[in-house]
Protein 1
Amino acid sequence: MTDQTETIREIRINPIVPSESVLVSTARGMRPRKDENPAPRDTRKHVDRCPFCTGNETMTPPTVAAAPDDKHWEVRVVENLYPVLGDDSTSSNLVFGLQQAIDGYGRHEVIIDHQEHGIAVHEMSEQHIFLLTGMYRDRIRALYAADERIQYVLIFKNFGPAAGASIPHTHSQVIAMPVVPENVHNEVVHSRHYFEKNRQCVFCSLVDEALTFEATIYDRESGSVRRKIDVGQYVIERGRHFVAIKPFASRYEWEVHILPLQHQSDFLEISDAERRDFAGVLKRTMGRLDAVIGGAQYNYFLHSIPHNNEFSDCSDSYHWHLEICPRTSIPTGFELGSGLFVSTISPEDAARQLRAANPE
Ligand SMILES: [Zn+2]
Ligand SMILES: [Zn+2]
Ligand SMILES: [Zn+2]
């Protein structure tokens, strides 16, 4: 069990992608500069001149999709006005933030997540998050179907100026690309390798491990709780079908991943009942992050099995998940110079604080 006051200094290898590691150092001095306070996020409900607010639909490119319908939309999708990729693109080797050179065909859309300008995910209703994630699924499906050159459809969200959101109105982005982004590629390759060796999905193993650590020992006679085992718990939140975990070797101090409890490689396989549960787990997890770090500004990324021939054999070894990466500090010179991420709070301690948080 990790004691809060105990100093930890160790390099942890990411069990999924072993080439990635993080230096966990809770000693003072690893962050010589005080963390910058992120600029406050925009919490207004409606902004007259915002192109994503209701009444201003003519200020955006035409609607690609809307739910429940075009007129009374709660979630609306438009083409990105400044696409990273376009199907008329003639420029080659655009370098996108995923450290992947992309050449050629692609699509870039914006999902306006909610009518309310500055609403955070944990403030949305579960029903709304259910609608939003249904739109994620529909766009992924539609974009894969639209062109066979598409190998990956990435859904991500930047929330708050510290996370690089250029438009304050809450939104997600969809990028359909002819290559698999490097980090997803690494996860798929390494988890396939793990499966070949262990005949088991590495993500399932990690979920099992996290859940096993959370054990309650009952008294044989009376059935009352005798002791709760509390060894390095990484579980933040769980539902019937999903679990939110603090990774053992996370790059970002408050990074949390949400995974299906039952093995599932493709987000497109999610059932409606599972998606309802996912909405609840996501809302509560975001609420915990917000309660602990205050006005969480973050990026999240949906990682799911790529639709290409190279990875058609990976449905047993890859496991889809949502990576939530809150931006609480700016990278230090050491991190930029070494490529090694530094975490000044141990993942165990972060998980403990998140579990103890009262999201409401
Ligand atoms: Zn707005
Ligand atoms: Zn699995
Ligand atoms: Zn991932």
Protein 2
Amino acid sequence: MTAPVVLITGALTGIGRATALAYAREGAHIVVSGRHQDAGDLLVKELGSLGAQAEFVRADVRFDDDVRYLVDRAVERFRRIDVAFNNAGTEGWRGSITDVTDESYEATFDTNVKGTLLSLKHEFRAMRGTGGGSIVNVSSILGLMAFPESALYAGSKHAVIGITKAAALEGARHGIRVNVIAPGFTQTAMYERSTGNAYNRDYINSVLPMHRPGTPEEIAEAVLYLGSDKAGYITGQTLTIDGGLMSGWPLTPAA
Ligand SMILES: NC(=O)c1ccc[n+]([C@@H]2O[C@H](COP(=O)([O-])OP(=O)(O)OC[C@H]3O[C@@H](n4cnc5c(N)ncnc54)[C@H](OP(=O)(O)O)[C@@H]3O)[C@@H](O)[C@H]2O)c1
């Protein structure tokens, strides 16, 4: 079997990084992308030590030219892209709807929504030329519900689910599957930033059905599945990975 060629945005930390490492262990060829050259070079070394052929391409997903170059470089190096994981995302700005500004909208939507659209645009171009592929976008449980003062982040992650459905319908006739994951609380730097402090995290754990956040590695396993031929008839779907949170309220407090 030939090694799959995998492209990952926002690959330098958290879920993106865990997914890159998981793909390296599977023997994939990997193009990792992010905004920091030094961290990218280090990650490529780490992936290489696991036996993967890997390359870092610096790209900010808010910019069309960056994403075009990223995709073109991946195809130039490995001839095709089999799996794209559009993971780059930001918690953006949080606050009251009455305080939304041009800047706070752009700080959230330009990465989470425009970045996803630009990634799909160029990945479709590449995959249509090579007979298809699998794309996994990243939403959130806040793509399915909201918290107070989360209008921008929740709005952006709801948008990613709608974009995924439209892209899946368009991709179907070209052999391109497009799905989206909706992680719940997942132990990454974003989780640490958004939850603020240990007191808040203890409270969150007490109401989570499994009384713990997910790990980036648990999210990565779901991405590998959706990216693979084992998910060959699955497209346009949202896979919630939240330890049961969206199923309801656990009723009993943590022991
Ligand atoms: N952790 C959670 O609880 C959780 C829950 C639901 C969904 N998610 C989603 O999961 C994805 C990964 O997040 P994470 O939890 O792994 O947090 P993270 O460690 O902060 O990862 C986000 C990555 O995206 C990169 N990024 C941000 N803006 C970018 C841009 N414009 N261009 C290119 N890269 C950019 C960040 O790099 P920089 O250092 O350059 O900013 C970072 O490496 C995000 O889409 C997030 O919304 C996370």
